[in-house]
Amino acid sequence: MDNGLEPKFLICTECNEEFVFTIQAQEYFAERGYSEDPKRCKSCHTLYKKGQRGGKPRQQTAMQYPD
Ligand SMILES: [Zn+2]
Asked: Does residue 33 sit within a domain?
């Protein structure tokens, strides 16, 4: 079970609130090839994603939090 990961505490660039980048989320991101930490907390990220609907097909390249 020990994969060397620890929860990270990050500051959201949208609301400036501290949020936890959980091990689960880190693994999820890593599986998708993301090496950078998320810049938004989950709630801001969700709003950001909703605001991006502009007729483009769904992009899997955008960062996505696990549910
Ligand atoms: Zn936020």
From this structure: yes
